[in-house]
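Look over this entry.
=====
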Amino acid sequence: MKLWKKGVDSHTLIEKFTVGNDYVLDMTLLPYDCIASQAHARMLCKIGILTKQEEKKINQCLTKILKLSSEDAFVITPQDEDCHTAIENFLTKELGETGKKIHTARSRNDQVLTALRLYEKDELKKIKIIIQEYKGTLKKIISPYGKIPIPGYTHMQKAMPSSITMWLGSYIDSIEDTLILIDSVDTLIDQSPLGSAAGFGVPIFSLDKKMTAKEMGFSKVMDNPMYCQLSRGKFEATLIHMMTQILFDLNKLSTDLMLFSMKEFGYVELPEEFCTGSSIMPQKKNPDVLELVRAKYFVILGEEMKVQSIIGNLMSGYNRDLQLTKEPIIVSFETTKACLEVMSLVLSKIKINESQCKKAMTPELFATEEAYKLVKKGVPFREAYRTVGKKYSK
């Protein structure tokens, strides 16, 4: 039964369109909504809406849902619309009148927002762990190969001497920037919206929002209920932007690896088991995995733009448009984690061809050094620059 139903059947086509794929996406949010509902039930008990016995039964039933969910045995149907309805229907079926009390002093608006924030906080923790693993893999490559020289490039032409340490170390330094971004975004979303209801608070009852925030592990409460609705989509766009920064680095590193593994370069050797073949050319070993990681950057950019576009021009308060910001954040988290894991795996198996790297260290790479040697002898830099330039223009 739908939570909002008042005796009029919805048109089948309209129902299908408005529900969309929320019932599928909400399988991801289901555990987090259960956790929020448990905190809410404890708070309702504290303010006298539920008896201790009722609160105990509700929490036991929610724990049962969590167990069923972990075993892929809890199903959300299109008729349920979302996880919030499925959970309440289950509680009502199991507990009767007691189950019907769980929705007191809340709306699906603050339910979905709370579940999203809990999910996002959890996913950020996972990403931080995977990023550290990725960083560790880069360090492991630098350890044996770091001193090997390679050309540095500007405008895709040889420029000045570089090294494996300088090349891969730049990506390690960039990870530190990303970690700052993650911590910043984590601070932003670490606020509980539970108790904001439909965006205007709850009349009559004095809710203990600090209690539920603490129960769920949030560091603070979003006091202004309209601010909660204002944050929806805005916070998600910020989260996805942070992920585009991760994918940007992976995009660039993927391109580096593809170029440097070409026979024309030969600095890097990709593991054969990570490459694919051609259906017509027997000799081919294609770096499809790196090409896809490179392309995923633009996928995440698209998800960010999707959210930014959806939330624009909406008046304050809740609008159904916001339902469509849920999928982009879930897709972005899954894509980002997968790309980090894949890149770590590929990097852990690459080999650096020292002889090819040294062979590529041709004289023109040292032109700037030659000019500075003349400067040390008293030659003005511009004159030294032109002198050395003529040498390599022949």
About this structure: The longest strand covers residues 157-163. The longest helix spans residues 108-145. Residues 12-101 form a domain with the Fumarase C; Chain B, domain 1 fold (CATH 1.10.275.10).
